[in-house]
Design a protein that fits this description.
Number of strands: 12
Number of domains: 1
Order of helices and strands: EEEHEEHHHEEEEHHEHHEHHE
Helix content: 25-40%
Shape: globular
Largest sheet: 6 strands, mixed
Structural class: alpha/beta
């Protein structure tokens, strides 16, 4: 029996409220977007005192003038699921991985962010406990592509597992600056009919669909487009991130003889995003489709269809919710406490009224 928190959504023409119960008492908060909802939901969890080991919040948010915010933890380590906390931090230190902070510098790269709404932290909390269990990671992989036959350990100088996190190419095929290398949130190396099949996982939590124009930044990647499966719309920030990862894996395949991953032409790019946030991304695409000038056609009725419209090979991209991705391991005893944790922290149920 999972411990998902239930919210009742009540909307007026201008505002949206979420009603919930705490020890029999009814409470509510206002949130007009999923972004705001996630902030408020995490404030509720902090106030309840269970998920974050009693951390009272009010930590510093570096990006916002170094002010304190109620959904930022004072002790950053409380942001990680307790049974994985020490192993995650050791993994990042030994393998020179970077925790993402709003104010990036090398001083804190081995310290997790205290931002409870972090997508990187969400990815680690969902997947890190599985990384040493081959059969369980295989179940996740087959949930993405049923034809997968096995998964192989990979990815790290110290303590390789069946899932690698924050993976970057050691050869830097995209010729990027060292402080902005394209990284993969989670990487599974699978085999389908004895051929290597990388599963590239990009994890999103509360990120809003971003229309920031990245045309200028695109120039450094132009030389890689000619033989790519990509078509158009990359200039918008949300697509730009997926574009870089697509080029990353394509270059890895093109130069497979010199790479540690001996991949063939096939790979699968998976976007993991909460359903409520995906709905908002879909709405943004519909709005763009209905209102954009004809010079920028290509917008569809969903984000998935819009991005697939940018790809020549549409089978290489899939979307999963966190719950759907982990569905094959929900009944495994060793994950019982993890599923309770994820259900209460991330998989809250929103009921429309």
């Amino acid at each position: 029996m999972t411990k998902e928190k239930i919210y009742h959504k009540k909307s007026t023409k201008r505002e949206t409220f979420y009603v919930f119960e705490v020890e029999g008492e009814e409470k509510e908060f206002k949130a007009n977007s999923f972004y705001d909802f996630v902030n408020e939901h995490n404030k509720v969890l902090i106030e309840e005192g269970k998920i974050f080991n009693g951390d009272i919040g009010g930590g510093i948010y570096e990006k916002k003038d170094w002010k304190t915010y109620p959904y930022i933890l004072k002790n950053c380590e409380n942001n990680l699921y307790s049974p994985i906390k020490n192993n995650v931090i050791t993994y990042f230190k030994e393998n020179n991985k970077r925790f993402w902070h709003e104010n990036e510098n090398d001083k804190n790269k081995y310290i997790p962010t205290g931002n409870t709404t972090s997508s990187q932290i969400a990815c680690l909390n969902h997947l890190f406990l599985l990384r040493d269990y081959r059969d369980d990671v295989l179940k996740i992989a087959k949930n993405i592509c049923p034809n997968i036959e096995k998964v192989i350990p990979f990815g790290d100088r110290f303590n390789p597992g069946y899932i690698a996190f924050e993976h970057v190419s050691p050869s830097n095929r995209l010729q990027e600056k060292e402080n902005r290398l394209t990284s993969i949130d989670a990487l599974i190396i699978a085999k389908e009919k004895d051929k290597i099949l990388p599963l590239i996982i990009e994890w999103k939590y509360k990120e809003q669909f971003c229309e920031k124009d990245k045309t200028e930044s695109l120039q450094e990647y132009k030389k890689f487009f000619e033989n790519s499966i990509l078509n158009e719309l990359y200039k918008y920030n949300t697509f730009y991130q997926l574009m870089r990862q697509t080029l990353w894996v394509e270059q890895m395949i093109t130069h497979k003889a010199a790479e540690t991953i001996q991949a063939e032409k096939k790979y699968i790019h998976v976007l993991v995003i909460p359903k409520e946030n995906e709905k908002e991304w879909d709405k943004c695409c519909i709005d763009k489709r209905d209102w954009e000038e004809k010079s920028e056609e290509g917008w569809k009725e969903t984000f998935e269809k819009t991005w697939k419209g940018c790809l020549k090979d549409k089978e290489k991209f899939k979307i999963r919710t966190p719950e759907k991705l982990l569905a094959p391991i929900l009944e495994i005893k060793r994950y019982e406490n993890l599923i309770d944790y994820l259900s209460e922290r991330y998989w809250c149920k929103i009921e429309e009224e």
